[in-house]
Design a protein that fits this description.
This protein is α/β, with parallel strands linked by helices. The chain contains 11 helices and 8 strands.
Length: 308
């Protein structure tokens, strides 16, 4: 029997956030390919790229020299974290003037609950457009966001990535699972390079296979209960960490972390440093959103030769 779940989550994902803030604050950068760097140096890498730059294949982790080769007109600016945090708080205020925010997940992502009539598709879409208009009016029209609407946070985040930039995608229970088939396994949160390899080892080679697998099969592939949780999330069920069933959208935490697997061409010290810079800002932003203070910071590095 197929269970239908209402639309419960609206996910806001700001597009090319650091670069977009720079374009909003510096009119001369608008419409131009922009790369944001931790320091202005030829040996470093981009920690953000505008959509004009992304059109040339430039993204987070692209070395400066490679970016110049791909796009001779590339403009580089040094990161200004304080301004990104200030803009972040203005964006939170803008969104909260439209609807409550359940959780701020990072400096450029937040999720809002849908309640009452907002759980209807047309009302949810009206709310999404209201949020976009309010951001443009109160913060700036170059701070564009993609919005995903779905029965749970996992699917709403997935939907927010399906139409960028400035998109809005709705995933309803009736759309599942076929609307996900166009995606790659690694497009789904929680599936990285290592997990993709594990899934393929278990005969799951695409999202269609993943959706067709039983909860038991996914538990085996994941090596634990997280596989069963993925089975439920793919079907629209709300998980406890999303604030349902435990009465607490901000559970007690002992740590906050972010991770990233470097592509082979980016496995150099400058590239690693640039990515680390961005991960640190995202982790610090989450720390502040939970009103917590860091007791210590640690870095864990795993090398291709298995040293750690």
């Amino acid at each position: 029997m197929t269970v239908s779940f209402p639309l419960r989550a609206l996910y806001v994902d700001f597009n090319s956030y650091f670069a977009s803030v720079e374009q909003q604050l510096q009119p001369k950068l608008r419409g131009r390919p922009v790369g944001v760097l931790p320091v202005l140096a030829e040996t470093t890498c981009c920690i953000a790229a505008s959509y004009e730059a992304k059109a040339f294949g430039i993204k987070t982790g692209t070395p400066v020299r490679e970016a110049r080769r791909r796009c001779p007109d590339m403009v580089f600016v040094e990161a200004r974290p304080a301004l990104y945090v200030e803009t972040h708080h203005r964006l939170i205020a803008a969104v909260e003037s439209c609807t409550p925010i359940k959780r701020v997940l990072s400096i450029d992502e937040m999720v809002c609950p849908l309640m009452g009539s907002e759980q209807q598709r047309d009302k949810a879409l009206e709310l999404a457009q209201h949020i976009k208009r309010t951001i443009a009016e109160k913060v700036g029209k170059y701070l564009r966001c993609s919005i995903g609407i779905a029965p749970n946070t996992f699917l709403a985040k997935t939907a927010s990535n399906m139409q960028k930039p400035d998109g809005c995608t709705v995933i309803e229970s009736g759309d599942l699972p076929h609307i996900l088939y166009r995606l790659e396994l690694r497009d789904l949160t929680g599936i990285g390079r290592a997990m993709e390899a594990r899934l393929q080892h278990h005969g799951i080679r695409c999202v269609r296979d993943l959706c067709a697998a039983s909860a038991k099969a996914l538990r085996l592939a994941w090596g634990g209960v997280e596989g069963e949780r993925m089975h439920d999330k793919l079907r629209g069920k709300t998980m406890p960490e999303e604030g349902e069933g435990n009465g607490d959208a901000h559970p007690a935490r002992s740590s906050i972390s972010h991770s990233h697997v470097l592509a082979p061409q980016l496995r150099t010290m400058p590239s690693a440093y640039s990515v680390l810079h961005r991960l640190l800002q995202k982790a610090a932003m989450r720390l502040r959103s939970y009103a917590l203070i860091a007791g210590e910071i640690g870095i864990y590095v795993k090398y291709t030769n298995r040293q750690r």
